[in-house]
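Entry 12.
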Amino acid sequence: MTRRPRDRRQQIIASAARQFREFGYHNVGITGIAEAVGITSGALYRHFGGKQELLLATVENTLDQLQVAWSQPDATLDCLLDATCALASTGPQVGALWAREIAHLPEERQRELRGRLRTATEPLRAALAVQRPELSRDAVDLLIWAMMGVISSPAYYTARLEPSALHQCLLDACRAVVMTPQIEPGEQAADIADLPDVLLPASRREAILIAASRLFSARGFQAVGVDDIGAAAGITGATVYHHFPNKAAILSAAANRVVAAMMLDLSRALDSSQTAAEALDKVLRFYVRINVEHVREMRSLQNEAINLPEADRQLLGERRADFIAEWVALLTADRTDLSVDEAQAVVLAASTSISALMGIPHIRRRRDIGSELVLIGEAILGLRGAGDAPTA
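Predicted 3D structure (tokens):
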């Protein structure tokens, strides 16, 4: 008789984490998770009561690993970051599970998990306060979440670096965040994501795209129906179908429009710069601006594109990869110490950290968040205010 492996539960959790990360929670079934482990669905149900319970287990498993990494007695900040980056370089689901999939859990569970995460980061906060005693408590908070964005970046792409090299790139990026200059106490402003929806374009197609982006950001793609989009756009659900064949086509159009806007900004930066460093700083500032001014659209792009049909998702991924490749070309031209693959890791650490920070309500309410994101991005990229780029 074949004996059940002692780590069967962990195998199931690892399989689920990989599939949730690659396909999204709603696109993953119990059968597929079980088959990847080599067991039946019935055998899986002996460990977990259902998919939501399994999602909770994967998130808690990630949190448990982070707590172990941060629970070294009397460890320096660099030691804590080293352990965290080692985990992130071998477990790319760490960021996606928190940023995208936790929303599929009951609100009470989400609050509990976020509370646990904040408590777990206390050793990092204390160590950062020792290293940067001039920082206020809320400035420490900003840099902690910026580093969390860095370590989550491998969740959103397939790294070409070996784990040890990726580990070093992430660690260098976190060290750069630690030393970000000029971070001051942050006054709170209105949250753009909570501002009332006052005006819509006269064009029905444009109104649909904007209304859908708002709804996808607030509720998630799966929780929004075509009738909801129509009502938010001031039309009927049936009228929506005159402009788009289905809900996925709306998401695809909205997401591709964001990427197109980023590419236009990039072209503007190239046309107005004399050096790679100057162009890179402008691209960074434009990227910060679009994240700050279009937070709903960027959150939809980051978290909901996983729900697109495979062909649409692949095309969108290629366009986003083209955008990142332009960043990488500029960075390698300015920093000859980096290989192309290392530069890709650095660019994605910077861009993911910026987007992740704008996904945190109390962070995006900081009155000077645009300027602070530029400073953090410049630190990660190794820039120091290159050129006279426009203020984000």
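Annotation: The first helix runs from residue 8 to 23. Residues 268 and 283 are 9 Å apart (CA to CA).
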